[in-house]
């Protein structure tokens, strides 16, 4: 046995690193996080595709997760819907026409009991969430800009803060006193666009149009004494003003220690509340997205055609106001930040900056924007009237660009066959009158066409159609065929080992429209894939929901086209004709040198 001398022990003690109390607690936190990481992940949605979507009468602009398992969705026409979380998914509860014009902003009280909206009609509406009834109406004599419940612990009722669009004032209302302004706060120099209440520290965070962030207590209207800075110049609260960008939203973590902001420069910034310092910064600029695509990282990499389509959509977002609807949210543990990008919805671990999941990457028809999350246990009531909680069923609620739908991501992928809903996109809203008229005269006829024959100048191509999986697409194709639309049209695009394309009246790929005029929406099915030769699918304008009259037939399996183009048929006979068209010589624009025409298309 070797015995160490005193000098050896002394040297070893000198080599030991002495850490501070703060470092010790950080190490302890990291160990605790690693220990519970799997639990955190199990309480987050994980499916690659959205499980279900529900309709609104118009474009959805706002969503909020309230207390007691209630979810509220609002559309641009002033309508709002209450939904209730069930053991699996959600169910509709009640609908209101809250405003006669667009809803500008919404807020939920900290206890989840009240929900408020402000509208262009210069009114504020307060709803009791538990009874889903409208409780109060505030008639404002100004155009509102932002709204937030603020509820200090020493008050018996919630207060409502509403900022004015045309001044820097923030008006504080006592909710139960119907329109009486309790006080006016004027600490900003510009109109205030964002108001949020940090309940853990009983402090309001407000941001004006110039990007200046202010902390203030309701009573004193001053910066709280407990913050860990004396002057704002010692913080990063002037970050947006310095960068000359505008924050679009603010979300506070469950414990109040962090808050996150998205901004129009496509940066997501996370701040520590007590210090006002920026602790994390995620860059989602288009330049960086291009670099990620070029890097070849399979986690992000998209098909080149799909990436180009999404990049064009992102550029159009910047030219509109839609990007301002995007937000970032914390999970209930405060360890993960969730936000939508052009690649999909990222779930990022803010402890190590690792992206643990990318939801919806395959959903090429939707550009998700605004997110809300449910991570509790849905409370159900038994026949005896006793309430009880089910297993945790995390749901991520998402809005999408130019969509009158909201989407649900869960831990479940969409079912191939759903006898209850008939598909993952639920048609819970009645169609418009003109749509009902069109459908009443046509759907009973066109639903029964399951076969077609394309008579071409090189021979016949026999098709099986799928009206059950994509009724609108088959109806459009068959109606155009019966009306003689395709007669005499050429195959204008032929690419060897890829596709043959036709259906353009101009003969160059730029023409054609549906039987309803213009474009119609995609109809994707998990049963129908581009997994074989002879797949018949709709061409589009490299954007979701831009189907018209053009279609193509695949010459090889093309799985990268799944969920980008609607498959509505298969070639059952005549593949030799397809191959003959594929082998024809073409010019630099993939147009056959010798015209190959459709004589006509018969359907039955």
UniProtKB/TrEMBL annotation:
InterPro entries: Cyclophilin-like_dom_sf, Cyclophilin-type_PPIase_CS, Cyclophilin-type_PPIase_dom, Cyclophilin_A-like, WD40/YVTN_repeat-like_dom_sf, WD40_repeat_dom_sf, WD40_rpt
UniProt-listed Enzyme Commission number(s): 5.2.1.8
Residues annotated as domain PPIase cyclophilin-type: 448-603
Protein name: peptidylprolyl isomerase
SUPFAM superfamilies in UniProt: Cyclophilin-like, WD40 repeat-like
Any one biological process term the GO annotation gives: protein folding
Comp. bias regions, Low complexity: 1-17
Segments forming a coiled coil: none
Enzyme class: isomerase
Keywords from the UniProt entry: Isomerase, Repeat, Rotamase, WD repeat
Source lineage: Eukaryota, Metamonada, Anaeramoebidae, Anaeramoeba
Molecular function in Gene Ontology: peptidyl-prolyl cis-trans isomerase activity
Natural source organism: Anaeramoeba ignava
Catalyses which reaction(s): [protein]-peptidylproline (omega=180) = [protein]-peptidylproline (omega=0)
One cellular component term from this protein's GO annotations in UniProt: nucleus
């Amino acid at each position: 046995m070797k015995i160490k001398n005193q000098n050896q022990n002394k040297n070893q003690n000198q080599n030991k690193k002495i850490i501070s109390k703060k470092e010790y607690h950080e190490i302890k936190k990291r160990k605790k996080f690693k220990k519970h990481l799997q639990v955190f992940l199990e309480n987050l949605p994980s499916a690659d595709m959205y499980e279900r979507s529900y309709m609104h009468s118009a474009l959805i602009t706002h969503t909020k997760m309230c207390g007691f398992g209630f979810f509220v969705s609002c559309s641009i026409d002033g309508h709002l819907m209450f939904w209730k979380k069930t053991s699996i998914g959600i169910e509709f509860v009640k609908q209101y026409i809250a405003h006669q014009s667009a809803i500008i902003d919404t807020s939920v009280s900290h206890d989840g009991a009240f929900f408020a909206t402000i509208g262009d009609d210069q009114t504020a509406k307060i709803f009791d969430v538990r009874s889903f009834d409208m409780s109060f109406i505030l008639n404002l004599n100004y155009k509102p800009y932002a709204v937030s419940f603020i509820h200090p612990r020493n008050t018996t009722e919630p207060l409502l803060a509403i900022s004015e669009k045309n001044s820097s004032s923030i008006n504080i209302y006592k909710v139960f006193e119907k329109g009486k302004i309790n006080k006016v706060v004027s600490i900003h120099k510009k109109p205030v666009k964002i108001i949020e209440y940090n309940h853990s520290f009983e402090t309001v965070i407000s941001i004006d149009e110039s990007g200046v962030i202010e902390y203030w207590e309701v009573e004193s209207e001053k910066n709280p004494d407990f913050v860990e800075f004396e002057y704002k110049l010692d913080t990063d609260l002037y970050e947006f003003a310095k960068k000359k960008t505008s924050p679009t939203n603010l979300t506070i973590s469950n414990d109040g220690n962090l808050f996150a902001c998205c901004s129009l420069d496509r940066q997501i910034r996370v701040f520590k509340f007590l210090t006002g310092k920026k602790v994390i910064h995620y860059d989602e600029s288009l330049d960086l997205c291009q670099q990620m695509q070029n890097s070849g990282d399979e986690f992000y990499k998209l098909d080149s055609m799909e990436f180009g389509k999404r990049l064009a959509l992102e550029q159009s977002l910047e030219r509109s106001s839609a990007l301002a609807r995007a937000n970032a949210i914390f999970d209930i543990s405060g360890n993960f930040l969730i936000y939508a990008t052009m690649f999909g919805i990222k779930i990022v671990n803010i402890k190590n900056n690792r992206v643990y999941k990318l939801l919806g990457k395959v959903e090429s028809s939707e550009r998700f924007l605004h997110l809300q999350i449910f991570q509790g246990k849905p409370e159900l009531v038994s026949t005896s009237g006793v309430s009880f909680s089910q297993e945790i069923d995390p749901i991520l609620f998402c809005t999408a660009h130019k969509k009158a739908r909201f989407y649900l991501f869960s831990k479940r992928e969409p079912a191939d066959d759903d006898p209850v809903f008939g598909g993952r996109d639920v048609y819970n809203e009645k169609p418009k009158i003109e749509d009902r008229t069109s459908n009443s005269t046509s759907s009973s006829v066109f639903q029964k066409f399951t076969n077609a024959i394309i008579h071409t100048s090189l021979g016949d191509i026999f098709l099986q159609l799928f009206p059950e999986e994509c009724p609108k697409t088959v109806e459009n194709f068959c109606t155009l065929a019966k009306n003689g639309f395709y007669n005499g049209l050429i195959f204008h695009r032929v690419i060897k080992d890829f596709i043959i394309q036709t259906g353009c009246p101009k003969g160059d790929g730029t023409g054609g429209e549906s039987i309803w005029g213009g474009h119609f929406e995609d109809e994707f099915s998990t049963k129908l894939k581009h997994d074989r030769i002879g797949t018949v699918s709709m061409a589009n304008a490299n954007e979701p929901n831009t189907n018209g009259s053009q279609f193509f037939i695949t010459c090889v399996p093309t799985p990268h086209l799944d969920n980008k183009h609607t498959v509505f048929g298969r070639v059952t006979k005549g593949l030799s004709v397809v191959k003959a068209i594929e082998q024809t010589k073409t010019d630099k624009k993939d147009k056959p040198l010798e015209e190959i025409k459709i004589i006509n298309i018969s359907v039955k």
